[in-house]
Every structure is written in structure tokens, then in C-alpha cells.
Amino acid sequence: MQVAQGSQGLQVAQGSQGLQVAQGSQVLQVTQGSQGLQVAQGIQVLQVAELKKQMVLAENEMRDLRNAFQLLHGEVLERLNSLSSQREQVQQQLVRLQEENDQLVGKHSVAAETLQNERIDFPDSVEDLQELLLKCRDDLIRSKLASERLEEDVRTLQCENQLLRAQMDAEQAGRVSMEDNLSAELDNLKTELHQVKRECKVQQSSVENLQLTLTAHQETISDLKSRLDTALRAK
Length: 235
Known about the structure:
This protein is an alpha+beta fold. The chain has helices spanning 30-117, 126-234, and strands at residues 2-5, 10-15, 18-23, 26-29. This is Rabaptin GTPase-Rab5 binding domain-containing protein.
């Protein structure tokens, strides 16, 4: 079917793909043209929806990562505070043992000076002399044992102090490394999120342009249909 109208050059033809309207060199495919625009617009809308979904996922992942970082940071600080408290206790014990050792050394020095200045008065009998020797031997053994225990306690506390210090250093190094890794991952997520937002903005602008184009074509098609109906009635 073809319809022509005078000098306007309006032509209507029923093609294999739908109604075609031509005016001069402009040809519009009424059915197929509008569908093509609608398909293109639908694809753009799906792309925008997918980008928005990616943006939401990135924001959720960044929020979860930030929460995990804060939780881990709190646990590490609590552990460091505990180690610091233990180290202070060990240090206090070391000071106490050192003071006790100084007191024992002072008492021993005073006792040695006292004994040195005292008049030597040996017992008259052999039995009394043997008893005195046994007593001195027992005092010497007890003093030696006390000194050895004190030295062992000091060495033990020193080892514990060094171990706690090493643990604190390791905890601190691990915390710093973990903070660096989490910070780098957060930066990557922020960069990815900004990129997704930019792409979403571009796609949204493209959808708006397609919508404007579709509206303009629909208005043109509506106008041509109206003119076509007028031409058909005039015939």
C-alpha cells in the first residue's frame, strides 16, 4: 500500500517489517524504529541497574571491612595492654627481689663485720665445739640455698620479662602490618566504588539521552500518523 499527498511528498508504504512513513529523504519505520529505541533503552537500564548493584556490593564490602578492622584493632590493643600490665608486674617483682637481695647482702656484710669484730670464744669441750660447727654449717647451707633460689627467681623473671617484651614487639609489628593491609584494601575499594559511580553516572546520562530521543521519535511518529490519517481520509 502506498499513499502520496501532493507537494508535501508524504508517502506511506506497508513494508515487511511494519508501516513506513516517508517525507522527502526522511524515512521512519513506525513499528520497528520505536522497538529498536525501546530495546536500546532497556539495555542501558539493565547496565545501570547492574552498576548500581555493584556499587551497593562495594559499599557493603567496604563497611564490613571497616568493621572488621575496628574489631581487630580493639582486640590487638587489649592484648597489648594485657602484655604491658604483665610486664609491669614482672618488673615490680624484679625490683622487689633486687631489694631483698640488697638487704640480704647488707645483712651479711653487717653480720660479717660483727663476727670480725667479735672476740673469738671457742667452747671448752669438744662436743660444744662440734655443735657450734654444725650450727655454722647449717646457717651457711641455708644462706647458700636462699641465695641460689633468689638468683633463680631473678633469672626466671628476667626471662619472662624478655619474653613478654618480644611478644609485645611481635603483636605491635603484626598490628601495624595488618593495619597497612586493611588500609590498602580500603583504598582499593574506595577507588573501585568511585569508578563504579562514574560509570553509573555515564550510563544514567546515556539512558536519559535515549529517553529524550525516544520521546522525540514518538512525537514525530505520532505527528506522521496523524498526517497519514488526514491524507487517507482526504483520499
